[in-house]
């Protein structure tokens, strides 16, 4: 018995010594302490289904499971979240992947670490009473078009469609309308002619018979037609110096979002409606369920941005951005998949 106890004691001591000598040996990031457990995350229009993985990670307690205290700042659009990150008032952003490309061209080292949306889910619609005038994108010259915020992905989407039909961004007037009830109200009041937005805003307007769809990226078929394949949408992106200084924190953030993606794989629209805040339903539960059903295909299945997706995103941007046409870009540097791979190994 004494010999057995001595052996067990030696094993325990050796294990402890190994753990103290090399923290990496004691387990994945979940077993390590975050360098920055309290942090601020920026997003542009959190109630939009484009950002549903963020709301799921928050409401299902996945951030807390990872030992993180995440304060979420909701801005009027993705461009404002990006500005806040560059300005240093927030730590990380849940936003559009294309911002990482644009920032690289401007010399800003920003990297995405998990794909949340494989399709943009953005829809361009026109007011039903203007449908006869605006039968296609090329007819939109002179139109007043609502977007979540100027410089956001909803704005880029219209710029791309305009460029494909030989028009320029300044051939139309863009108006920031947000991504909630205000966007719906401005369309219903006739303050804009067309709008580029997301669910549940789009499904609300469709169900009320207020709009006609010109371009829809909620489905694989729609993305194939418009972009020629997948086009990464929402991602989690950070400054490179934050990632370097806070690798465990970054891993924990990715873990939380990966859990949200895995949850969404099997969740029903009813499951989603039961988790999100009541105000996200826009006062119409049935409509919200329909919007979730319409948007389910957009969410990433793996968390990985594909090489073809990166190229499709760049091809979209160069259609209307002359600076990017001349820029020397290293696309693989816009996405670091190592954190997702580690999450996939430990989270089942």
Protein model, in words:
With 348 residues, the chain is an alpha/beta fold. The protein has 2 domains: 29-120 and 231-346, Periplasmic binding protein-like II (D-Maltodextrin-Binding Protein, domain 2); 127-216, D-Maltodextrin-Binding Protein, domain 2 (3-Layer(aba) Sandwich). The chain is built from 16 helices and 10 strands. It has helices spanning 2-21, 52-59, 62-65, 78-87, 98-105, 153-164, 181-188, 201-207, 220-227, 240-245, 247-266, 269-275, 285-295, 307-318, 322-326, 338-346; strands at residues 38-44, 69-75, 92-96, 110-115, 123-127, 144-147, 173-176, 194-197, 211-216, 234-239. Strands 2-1-3-10-4 form a 5-stranded mixed beta sheet, with helices on both faces. Strands 7-6-8-5-9 form a 5-stranded mixed beta sheet, with helices on both faces. Helix 6 (153-164) links the parallel strand 6 (144-147) and strand 7 (173-176). Helix 8 crosses helix 13. The chain is globular, with a radius of gyration of 22 Å. Mean pLDDT is 90; it is low at 1-27.
The CATH topology of the largest domain is: D-Maltodextrin-Binding Protein, domain 2
* Structural class by secondary-structure content: alpha/beta
Please tell me the overall pLDDT.
90
Q: Report the C-alpha radius of gyration, rounded.
A: 22 Å
Number of strands: 10
Top CATH class of the largest domain: Alpha Beta
Major sheet summary line: 5 strands, mixed
Distance between the termini: 40 Å
* Binned strand content: 15-25%
Spatial order of strands in the largest sheet: 2-1-3-10-4
